[in-house]
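Our consortium's second objective concerns turning raw sequence data into structural hypotheses that experimental partners can test. To show how far this objective has progressed, the report includes one record in full. It was chosen at random from the queue rather than selected for favorable results. The single chain below, 241 residues long, was entered without modification.
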Amino acid sequence: MRVPQRNNVGILLIFVREVLGVSPGQRAFVANGLVVGPFGEEEEIIDSDVELVERIVETQGAGVIASHIDKWELKKEDGYSSDVVMRSFALLAKYAVSRKRTWIVLGEDEHSTVTLVAEDSNRPVLDVVAVVDPLTRSAQKLAPILDVLRKTVNCDLKIVLNPKPKLSEMPLKRYYRYVVAPELQFDKAGKVAANQARFTNLPSKQLLTLSLHSPSAWMVENVFAEVDLDNILMDQVSLVY
């Protein structure tokens, strides 16, 4: 730490009072531009507090900045390299991207919103808002995911329906099932039961095709099929699973 000269003491006092907001007699930590405090008179500062501030500064990138500055071989007399670390850290922290929670405030949502309240109000509750166009393929996939999310996480779920105002034709021309379960299922023998995609009440006259959307790394093939999966007519299917 650089020891200030006598003619700089007055400037430092003004800086502490006007910039840092620390009044005479108050205590605070200043580490690489990070101000912690001021502390109250009844608060006791111990060694672990100093270690905590040091860890916070290091996790925010001070150690990485210092390692790069060491490679530049800057002079270390009179704390010059330490000043460069402090100024670099403070500058990066000032313009760092910070993410804040965004609250969605809806107006009249009586007919376009489905609200499901968390099952256990005594536990921490997450707030989940999903804005979907119900007549899209994305909505077909999102619906079972939201159902599983509600079963596994204690959350307030709000689904906002945001369809297009006009449609020239029916946008959905497929039946879709997203296979996902909130937990493992077991059969009577105690073995893990396989998840299933079940379709019911399909039209009997239209020609249907069965396809599977799997992760790109998977190798998938049908094991047994009574009919041609590319040409399915339900009125000709006799086997029911």
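The partners drew two points from this record. The first strand starts at residue 27 and ends at 31. The chain has three domains: 8-95, 102-191, 199-240. Both points have been shared with the crystallography group to help prioritize constructs.
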